[in-house]
Write a structure and sequence with these properties.
heterodimer; A: 608 residues; alpha+beta; five-stranded antiparallel sheet; four-stranded antiparallel sheet; B: 358 residues; 8 helices; 20 strands; elongated
Amino acid sequence: MRGKSAAALAALLPLLAAGWAAAGAERALAVRMAETTTAYLTLVTPAAPGSADYDLIRLLVQARALARLPGWEGRLEVYRGTAPLVRATQGSLSARTMAALRRRGGVLWWNGAALAPLKDKNGGEVVGAVAVTMRPTGEAWRRGAFGGLALPAVLAAIVLALRAAGPAAPRPTIRAHAALALLVGLAAYANARGAARDATDRWLDQTRLLVQEATARLPTTDLAHLAATIRPVAQAGGDGADLRTGGDSAAIRVRRVRVGDERQAVVAIRVGWGRWLALRTRPAETTTGGWLWLCLALAGLSPAVAALLRWALRARAYPRRLRETLTAWGFLAPATGHLGLFTFAPLLFVGYLSMHRWSPSEPAQPFVGLENFGRVLRDPLVWISLRNTVLFTLQVPITMAIALGLALLLRRHALVVRIARTAFFLPYVSSVVAVALVWQWMYHADVGLINRALAVLGLGPVDWLGNPRTALLALMVVSVWTQVGYQMVVFLAGLQGIPDAYLEAARVDGANAWRRFWRVTFPLLQPVTLFVLVTGIIGSFQVFTTVYVLTGGGPLHATDVLGYRIYHSAWELLQFGDASALALLVFAILFWVTWAQFKLLGKRVAYA
Amino acid sequence: MASVTLRQLTKTFDSSGLPALRDLSLVVRDGEFLVLLGPSGCGKTTVLRCIAGLEDPTSGEILIGDRDVTQAAPADRDVAMVFQTYALYPHLTVRENIAFALEMRGVPRAEIQRRVGEAADRLGIGGLLERHPAELSGGERQRAALGRAIVREPRVFLFDEPLSNLDAKLRMQLRAELLGLHRQLRATMIYVTHDQVEAMTMGQRIAVLHEGRLRQLGTPGDVYERPADEFVARFIGSPGMNILIGVADSGRGKRGGGAVVRCGSLTLPLALAYEGEIHLGVRPEHVTVCGLGQGEGDAEVRVVEPLGSETLVHVDAGGQPLVARVPGLFEVPNGQRLGLRVDVKRLHFFDASGTRVA
């Protein structure tokens, strides 16, 4: 029972995280507002004559005006020294708080309010403080945790967790539980993201009021000068906030726009007839990627606890099984570790890279969602390289036909045959770079062996690797030459696996050699053929070394294949995000092609 | 239908250099069911494969009917072969398997349909035609393989241990079916087996092979009752014939007696004039036990094998092992001494080289 409640409680964890994120966003908003408001007061309140300190009366007026401003959302208190100005009857700041504020030099969290130090006109000494209270943290927390879909999803997840944690839980329940846990995680993240977005919107909205108030209180000047004067108020809010001239009534509501590679939240501020300023900041929700992973990780806990519980209950019923399971995992651990470290971890990292702008030369590696994929798909060079790769892959059936023919010829065990087999296999075990260099010489336009031979026949020299029409073909020939030995060996093994009795039966049945091959050998060889085809296509899609050595993707992108394009994006353009996105797309293509091959051909494969 | 004639067939494999067949001459009569019997490695499968054309004989001739087919391709010999492993094409259905040979011979589609249907009905596999071999039981596969052979209506059927992969009960049933098939088709059938029970029950004649040589050719009765040599005598029968090594004594100058053979503790009368070492054969069923001193000699019990309907008593008769087949259950402790009575009219005599004397 304790285990079941643990599984049920674990379902709540993503909500805790979301509540925490929402409360954090609200506090961050309060901090920003305190800083912005402080900057505003600094701007609009004149100094007392002969001093850097503010004129007390004017400060009092400004503070009270602001606190009563229509549309002003937060609760404001301004302290001159330690004395409150807006609600003079309220308690004053303690000397200790004031000292802490001075020491800190930044915003302090105090009594549920963000307390920003108010420095004098010169920005030197702290002469007071500005306290801004936004929504109570508890309320923000509740909204974040239970808003939207989160509450119904979590209730359903708890019900299912209680059932899925039983020892004999049916599989559909387990699956439904996992699905709902995922939903809870996503809903929690949606709330966290929503809270961040809301905080940005509200900061823009409130700061717009401040800018408009500041405009009213400052002498009328030209717009650029006005923007420059008020800019410190906006910039005090941090997070890339800025105030510029421009904008129009279309942006009267907060909008998200893309500036270059960056997303920005922007709102237009009307400061007079036809006079507009644009206030922009980095949207807080773009930096919530971490919360997504946290929410999902926490969401996984409930199914994990349930699975652990099921396993533990079963293990208790069959102690031997526990021992065997542990032993099995002991044996599996090295392979699992290797697979995890060298296969799954890089795969996950590629997934991570594909959704970030990531370059070793740039410190900022922002999350960009599916942007990399979009850019890759819009890139005409990617499409050219895809076309080249598909064309290049046509060498696979050609290689296979030659390899199968060789395997049939070299089936016997005579010495000559064995030497021939070794000769055909040698290119496959040779260094690809060395092989490519040899071919480079053979293909050479002036001194190459092939052109010399053609010259003997009276045919003109062909710049095999330099001509866009022949370069890809030349590479395909190299690939056929290197792969044919390997495929031949696989086919030989396949041929050896076919019992003689089938062919003898066919001989007695009156089938000639041609028909014996097509009606008996070839169908029985189909599993091997499928294997060679699938691995051949996969290998063909990954071709890189020969291209790199022989042509470098040229001429005129004639040999620009996907493998080379990935390399080029990553190591020459240093766009690892794009390269990773492209790598994942290639993976998706290959996955689909392989799946289709198994579906189409696998059904007819007779596993003898 | 046709006879099959083998003339001085010799086959030597390159790999071993040893002759698998030596000077084998044999005539299989038209419509006969002939069994090639012998222990593994005796060359019986090689004979079959030579007849099928899957092996080329090193020398000698093979005639099917009057035609010399020694150099003919398997397809041109008009023989059908059923393999030990059945060799049903795994990627084809039973129907396609049976139809394969007809297709290869360009038989019209409609006729293929008809003949496949007939063959399947004859073998009772009409309902299995659309299945693949992997979906069939052992017996069904065997029938499908038979179907593939009979659909061609060949002149000669060759069977290479076709029942050896089946369990005992199914083997018995299929044995009967095969014989039924032979009666219906009246075809020439050559059947290879190492199982002498199969040979005895199925063969009209049995050819016993050993080390590439034909040891005896005869009806099951001949082979059992008058084995041509010691090998055949030992090989046929379960257990095989007892062979005792003895010395013939013509009995001249002795009182009260004709010629005798002394072997171990037994003394048996000899009905022919012979001197020196002689091998004496007697089947276990012609040996019974009796009281000490009451039979042809005494022996000590070594092993007793009760089989229910009979009991095999292994004894040691003065250093010569011997098996007696005793009806019913017979209980006797090991080491017990008892008398042996031998049916002296059923004795076989071989000379020292193993050739039959009488």
